[in-house]
Each structure stands twice: as structure tokens, then as C-alpha cells.
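ok here's AzlD domain-containing protein, seq below lol
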Amino acid sequence: MMLLAGILVLAVGTFSLRLAGPLLRTRFELPERAQQVMAAAAIVLLAALVATAALTDGHGDAGIARPAGVLVGGVLAWRKAPFVLIVVAAAATAAGLRLLGVP
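and the structure came out like this:
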């Protein structure tokens, strides 16, 4: 019963925070500098997530094939290639390198 109560409290809190954003957006104005910092923080967090997922496998190194695939996908995304092409090229790069025996 205690577990269900905890889940219910967290669900209500999460819903309240998600609802408060649109309702309170017109009442508070963030300074321009704070908005720029928040935008940069989102980019840094996304880059850290990509780096962690690309370079590690559990507690060890991911090898070379996965980071190479991510690098190919990143270059194609930077060049504004279609998303399907980015995914297929990244997967093909990693699979091709693994097929050649590269870890």
C-alpha cells in the first residue's frame, strides 16, 4: 500500500509540474541571458548523452565500430541529410566495421 501511495504522489507531482509550465508561462518572464543558458544547457546535456551512449558499453569501452557509426551519422546530420539516410548510413557503417572484425 505504501508503494502505491508513493507512486500516486509522484504521479500527481509530475502532472502538476507539467501543467504549471503552460499555465504560469505568461506570468513569469525569464531574462534573455537565462534563456540562452538554458538553451546551451540542453545542447550540452544532449551531447553528453550521445557521447556516453556512443563511447561506452556497460562499464567498458564500446570499441571503434559504434563511435564510427555515430560519427558518420553526426556528419550527415550536420550536412542536413534526410533522417532515414542518417540512420541507415550510421547503422551500415557500424555493421560493416563489425563484419570486417573491428570491435
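fwiw The chain has a mean pLDDT of 92. kinda neat tbh
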